[in-house]
Amino acid sequence: MCYYCFILESLIFLRPLTVVNIYTYTPLYTVYLSDMYNRNIFIFSYRFCIQLRNMLTDSVIVPFTTMLRNINKSNHHILPSLILAIGCLARDDVIRHKLSHDPECWKAFLVAIRQCSAYEYKEILYSMLGLIISLSTMTSPVIQEHAVSLCDCCLGLLRDSDGGVITRVTGVLSTVLPQSSEAVLHVIQADVVRSMCRLLKKSGPTATKYAIRTLTVCTAASHLAREELVKSDKKLSILRHLLDSSCDEMVSGNAALCLAHCLELEGIASNLLGTDIVLRLLRNAAGDAKKTAVRQNAAIALGKLCRSEPRHLNKLRELHGLEILHSCVKFIT
Question: DSSP code of 190?
Answer without folding.
Answer: T
